[in-house]
Design brief:
- α1 packs antiparallel against α7, α6 packs antiparallel against α7 and α7 runs antiparallel to α10.
- The radius of gyration is 33 Å and the shape is elongated.
- It has a domain of 52 residues.
- The termini are far apart.
- With 331 residues, the protein is an alpha+beta fold.
Amino acid sequence: MKQRNPPAQRRVLQLFDHVFKCLMSLSDTAVISFINALFSTSYLPASTVSRPSPETVEISMRRTLADMVITINGDSYLIETQISNDLHMGVRIFQYIMNEGRSRGRDTGDHVIRIKLPQARVIYWEPTAATPERESIVFMFPGGEEYRYEVPSVKFSEYTVKGLEDEGLGLLLPFCVMKYRREAERAESGEERRRLAASVESLVEEVVGAAERSVERGSMGAADAGNVVLFTRILWEELYQSYTEFKEEERMWEHIKVVDFDSLWKERDEAKRQVDEAKRQAEEAIRQAEETRRQAEEELSREREAAIRKLLKAGVSREQLATAGLLESAE
């Protein structure tokens, strides 16, 4: 049975925004890995992460919201998300940056306000052929001078599950289930929708596997992976559950939801701990053996020196001791 009233575009965008913000609130480890992948940075896992409010206030007192702002070690990153093309996206981003500068720009005493621009990206969930590679604004100043401000676009539909996993963008895995939503809306027969439901089920299994491997790679924690699966299910339910043919596939979650990432990785962590402990004990045994050898050599050297002193005192010459190999030279 086809859904009579597909989710409105605005409602879907609000859903995507909410899920994206929740994913960006997961562990610092996961967010640092995500920012490193998205912006080609190289922050260490111990870096300091903050998530300042994305809300600024204009002079007119209207609020301006950015989708997500992440700050790592004092560097800011602005991420906007959009379902489809937005001709004014570049203006929206620049507007947010200028409002941010108005509220937080610094005057160092020379009556010059300095605004540190964040790096920015726009993620288009469902780009088209007309989606630009970059959002651009050209500022034309008196005298003919121009300044071009550009924000690279990320075309999400060009990524596969494996692509997201390999590039370290695992926090975006839940959005893979949107792949068939347009086809589901257009489907005219139950057979076609059952085929799509099976494709989505296969996609969900890929996402779960990718989330698990992302934990193994260290790009997210076990709890993060559990939340990735949770938000995958939330999106699946919101986008497809109103179709009878998809509800028939709901049983797939019966085995997916029992995947206990915490227990799974506790077992692996315990195994790793045991290996590390065995390695530590072996290294300690080697260290103790080296220490015993060193002490024995020192004791032997002291005994040798004492014996040489006694022989010299008894009248044996240094030449004789050298000939006997007890001294390196007679000097």
